[in-house]
Amino acid sequence: EVQLVESGGGLVQPGGSLRLSCAGSGFTFSSYEFNWVRQAPGKGLEWVSYISSGDSVIYYADSVKGRFTISRDNAKNSLYLQMNSLRVEDTAIYYCARDRAASGYFDFWGQGTLVTVSS
Amino acid sequence: DIQMTQSPSTLSASVGDRVTITCRASQSVSTWLAWYQLKPGKAPKLLIYKASTLEGGVPSRFSGSGSGTEFALTISSLQPDDFATYYCQQYNSLSGTFGQGTKVEVK
């Protein structure tokens, strides 16, 4: 069974940092591209970042470029999102989502981890 | 960026109703469109991809249609498990923008 489990969310002050993790199981992790997608309270879904299977291709939304860094460790079947210089508007549930065959749509998602940026 | 607009934002319906949600793209995305179902506290679920292809394991009461800029998700007979929020997503271009969501609630 395919599973994606996010962790690392929590309460952080504006300007602070947080590192999210996503552990994959039930499939060959290294063969897939991944994304981070977030949902702010009462808002819709927003794509945040993408990483290719071999991490040679990485993209970011303009809203997080220069502050967030996506990475992966295929040996540990894990995806990461390092979030620096956090802002109140980064408050959201963060989901990791598997990209089917680099197609651009997401066939499996985790349940998400909540990040709250507040003083 | 391609903008995706869903309507309605909220839809009140009863079990057994036929329900249609529309999604409009600001420019053509061909058939590079997916639909997802979100429920609080649960992992989002892929329903439809390539505008009309049903994901494996998804009930056949769900169907998708459209191409270019106009798309629709139809639930032929609403079931209790279908009360949720639905999002379209274009993946014709980088960033894969989502619509703002349509909440299907109990009438």
Keywords:
heterodimer, A: 119 residues, mainly beta, seven-stranded mixed sheet, four-stranded antiparallel sheet, 0% helix, 52% strand, B: 107 residues, six-stranded mixed sheet, globular
Query: What class do helices, strands and sheet pairing of chain A give?
Result: mainly beta
How are the strands of the biggest sheet of chain B laid out side by side? 2-10-9-4-5-6
- Topology order of chain A in helix (H) and strand (E) letters: EEEEEEEEEEE
Tally of contiguous helical segments of chain B: 0
DSSP strand count of chain B: 10
The separation of the N and C termini of chain B measures 35 Å
Biggest interchain interface, per-side counts: A-B, 23 and 24 residues
Structural class of chain B: mainly beta
Main beta sheet strand tally, sense and closure of chain B: 6 strands, mixed
SSE sequence of chain B, one letter per element: EEEEEEEEEE
Give the averaged pLDDT of chain A, no decimals.
96
Proportion of helical residues of chain B: under 10%
Architecture overview:
The complex is a heterodimer of chains A (119) and B (107). Chain A has 119 residues and is mainly beta. Chain A has strands at residues 3-7, 10-12, 18-25, 33-39, 45-51, 58-60, 68-73, 78-83, 92-99, 106-109, 113-117. Helices cover 0% and strands 52% of the residues of chain A. In chain A, strands 2, 4, 5, 6, 9, 10 and 11 form a 7-stranded mixed β-sheet that branches. In chain A, a hairpin with a 5-residue loop joins strand 4 (33-39) and strand 5 (45-51). Chain A starts with a strand and ends with a strand. In chain B, strand 7 and strand 8 (70-75) form a beta hairpin. By secondary structure, chain B is mostly beta strands. The chains are: A mainly beta (119), B mainly beta (107).
